[in-house]
Design a protein that fits this description.
About 35% of the residues lie in helices and about 15% in strands. With about 160 residues, it is of the alpha+beta class. Bound molecules: FE2/S2 (inorganic) cluster (2 copies). Keywords: 2Fe-2S, Iron, Iron-sulfur, Metal-binding, Oxidoreductase.
Amino acid sequence: MEGRFVINGVEKVLSFEPDATLLQVLRDGGFTEVKRGCDTGECGACAVVLNGDLVTSCKVYAASVVGSEILTAKGLGTVQNPHPIQQAFVDAGAIQCGFCTPGMVMATYALLSKNPYPTDDEIKRALDGNKCRCTGYVKIFDAVRLAAERMRDHG
Ligand code: FES
Ligand code: FES
């Protein structure tokens, strides 16, 4: 089957099997910044923003979200022109294995776009679905606080 999606602001028509997940369709469509970790909704590596809400794309059937707007980490910013959240992750030393980072950045974006003044508990809850096995979450939390501050200061 075929479906039209708006991915990172650009309309795309993609072909996929009726039972394909959004994760499969995105990766097959070249959006490899969306990572496949557990494929069971546990790790958060595949997180994207779908119509304004954070989802784990391995748990969403593509057929059920045809016509939707999808934002991935590359839609937020690029190496040359990073989003303040991406820059905050770099500056706070929170870019770790790199595999989980796109999902964490998207979880942060979903949080800060709805809540510019998150408490530490709210940050913890927002990142609850993103698992990191390489180290602790201290630098990641620092990055979210820094991003919140910068986004408040610069609109
Ligand atoms: S790959 Fe989707 S949550 Fe792990
Ligand atoms: S950032 Fe990927 S395991 Fe820690």
